[in-house]
Write a structure and sequence with these properties.
Helix content: under 10%
Oligomer: single chain
Number of helices: 0
Amino acid sequence: MAYRRNYFADGQVTTPQITPEAVTEDKIADNAVTSAKIKDETITGADIGAGQVQTQDIADKAITAAKLGDDVTLTPLPDNAVSTAKIQDGAVVSSKLPVGSVIADKIASGAVTSIKIVNGAVTAEKLGPDVVIGALGNGAVTADKIADGAVTELKLAINSVTAAKIKTGAVGSSELATNSVITTKIAAGAVTTDKILDASVTQAKLAPGVGGGDTLTMLPAPVTALDLAGITGTTQPATVDLSAIIPLNTKGVIVSIACINQSYTDGGMMAYIYQQVGAEYALQVMAPAVNAPGISNGGAVLMPVASDRTLTWIAYVAGNNSTELVIYILGYVV
């Protein structure tokens, strides 16, 4: 029959020319049978190879309970049926969690960061006892609430560090400001010999009579304490201030006076020097009774001086004359 193929042109063999069951598997080309060539509802289970039906080939809701094997669990799942191992990582999203299902022990330590907290969500009752809101109450900040080293100089109020706050022995030389130890700060008997710098105790620092005896100091030249001219009448008692000449604690001075006659008609002048008013005079001198320039020196004597380092003088005048009185200091005793 092979020679007869040449009598058929392409496409000349139509369905009527093909006998029943003449088209065998060998006559069908690969991929020639499309979905349109398969009659609806003619494919049976026997025609489908094992494992050929994939998920995408199954219509939604096409698998009924009757199609499930004994090892397949029906929906809904029994309680506690889905273990952790059955859940894919990241599969539990927010929509899968019911309201209120995340309790405190499900939240890891440190998991709630600032951005996880809704503004205004942290109320006062949520705060621990060591969290302070608003103004601090009196006595609220106790010692254990203050970190070591937290109280700096700027945190201390003026005059807040009292003597009771300073640890015994804590104030050393470096803590004292220059000249801060004044007389009233030194306890009685605190200045011992080893506290005194060598050669620091001068004669002026010694009380009268201390040091084995009085010390006489002669001035290099006589110093004028008073020079008053034109005395024509008796004077009232007056004082001469010697503080610029003699030191503190001076006990006595070596003094000399002179009366200089400036003019004379009759009478005369007598000058006296006292330690103080009412005391016996220590030195007197009379002006010369001559009608010509003249001077009378009263010599030099050692006389007591007042504690305020002054001497008192007075001049008595009789008759008609004019006299100059000069008082000299030659030395002093301490």
